Amino acid sequence: MIELTCPIINVEPLIPHSESMVLIDRITDFGDDFLIAESEIRENHILIKNGKLEAFAGIEIMAQGIAAWSGCQDILANRPISLGYLLGTRKLYVHTKEIPISSKLQIQIKMSIQDATGFGVFDAKLIDLTENKIILEGALNVFSPREEK
What we know:
It holds the Pfam family ApeP-like. It comes from Otariodibacter oris. The chain contains 1 helix and 8 strands; from the N terminus they run βββαβββββ. It is mainly β.
């Protein structure tokens, strides 16, 4: 049984990724339609290319915030953790070019809509807590297929 008392430090069981592909370090709060999490950018971060983490790559970190929220909802509903897919985004605003190594990030997601088929839209923000500024924000379209009974 996964303990869902915040802060949640062991995020891996909530996200259908493993080891270095888990990009969130802790969940600080969540509810029926939102999640707040944190991620620290270390030198060995899997998304760093040529010593840099391009800001647009942060969309994957935000998407994992949605995956973590979904995992929490699955646990609360006594369901297995479901797979999810980032379909795309609209109105994505990139406020900086790169995310510095050693940055501490906050991921904020809020469900805008989600239907019975598993399609959803979430408003998401990636905030650099070190510099106190928004890196990315936008609406992420996701799909998590529901198993037929």
